[in-house]
Specification:
The chain has seven helices and six strands, in the order αβαβαααββαβαβ. The chain has 196 residues and is an alpha+beta fold. α2 packs parallel to α4 and α3 runs antiparallel to α4.
């Protein structure tokens, strides 16, 4: 609650005095068994909503790949957890439980890789002084704290030539609705093409 400028679901529930239980981060470590244990310990008849976030399917799909045997194991574990949680909710509330399941993103099969960190190590730039970067699974974000444009030009020349990467243009930012009146999110943002 209160994390975003626009009130979200939990803000609205809290403002209306509607009791709920949210079990995600930082309330739990997002592991399926931890979520089930927390529901057993903390869910009560007064709760009108139970929100759970199973993190393991996401983590494992990032590491082992979507559809891998390890990923499927975590999905089956989440299914079994719901098979335990739903009857528990119904028993404690005396009401039928509804279920809304969703993911925060999908996955594509990875057919190739691009190593942005390795490319950055080859540059004659000082990390923290000429540039700062953050790498995530499909994006690379850059900030240039210095006042000269040399670092930006060097990074762009290097990354623009790597296969599988694409720098977000002003048109992309507008289309994706990620135009910001500040540079907190990035000075340059690269994203991978599908399959990379």
């Amino acid at each position: 609650p209160g994390a975003y400028p626009t009130p979200g679901l939990f803000d609205r529930l809290r403002d209306r005095g509607i009791p709920y239980l949210s079990l995600g981060s930082p309330e739990t470590d997002l592991r399926t068994d931890s979520i089930v244990r927390a529901v057993r310990e903390r869910f009560c008849a007064d709760h009108k909503l139970l929100f759970v976030h199973f993190g393991e399917p996401d983590w494992v799909a990032h590491v082992a790949g979507p559809g891998s045997s390890k990923h499927l194991e975590t999905l089956h574990a989440a299914d079994r957890a719901l098979e335990e949680i739903l009857p528990l909710v119904e028993d404690r509330t005396g009401r039928p439980a509804g279920l809304l399941a969703y993911g925060d993103h999908g996955f594509l099969d990875i057919t190739d890789r691009v190593d942005v960190a390795a490319a950055m190590r080859t540059l004659d730039l000082r990390l923290g002084r000429d540039m700062v970067y953050f790498l995530d699974s499909t994006t690379a974000r850059f900030w240039y704290p210095g006042s000269d444009d040399r670092a930006r030009a060097v990074v762009r020349e290097t990354l623009d030539s790597l296969p599988g990467l694409r720098r977000l243009t002003a048109e992309d930012a507008s289309a994706y609705r990620v135009v910001f009146p500040h540079r907190r999110n990035w000075d340059d943002c690269y994203t991978t093409e599908a399959g990379w």
